[in-house]
Amino acid sequence: MAENHLVRCSTKQSGDRARVTHIGGTNSDGTAWKMTEAEALAGIKSGKLKFYVNVESDGKSRGIWLGVDQKQGRECLTTTGEGADPSALLGLPDCP
After folding, report:
1. Angle at alpha carbon of residue 54, lines to 83 and 46, rounded to 5°
2. DSSP string across the chain
3. What pTM does this model have?
4. What span, in angstroms and rounded, lies between the C-alpha atoms of 83 and 65?
5. Which residues of 30-63 are buried (b: 16+ CB within 10 A; e: fewer)?
6. Res 83: pLDDT
7. 47-83 pLDDT, tens digit each
8. pLDDT tens-place string over residues 11-22
9. More exposed terminus of the chain, fewer Cβ within 10 Å: N or C?
10. Closest CA to 67 of 56, 53, 54
């Protein structure tokens, strides 16, 4: 069974097209976690890890799952499902 993780922050690389390089959050014991995009992609593809972000819509918060997408010939993290906001990861606060 996959471990579910709430993503609360992201590290971005700026340029012509901003992209996420790391994601992070908080473990149940209060400690912080952070991993590279490549580690997160591998975890999703192996079925061991699942990630989601909380988004606000109409005054309500709901979780949106992350998945794997292809952009410009490389794999990247993206939001999936109904109402998915592709900029949700880029809009998160920067990871420490």
Report:
1. 85
2. -PEEEE--EEEEE-SSS-EEEEEEEE-TTS-EEEEEHHHHHHHHHHTSEEEEEEEEETTEEEEEEEEEEEETTEEEEEE-STT--TTTTTTSPBP-
3. 0.87
4. 11
5. eeeeebebeebbebbeeeebebbbebeeeeeeee
6. 64
7. 999 999 998 877 888 889 999 988 878 899 988 876 6
8. 998 776 778 999
9. N
10. 53
The pair of three-digit structure tokens given for residue 51, joined into one six-digit string = 């990630």
The per-residue pLDDT for 42 is 97
Residue corresponding to tokens 């990871």:
95
Tokens of 8: 């609360």
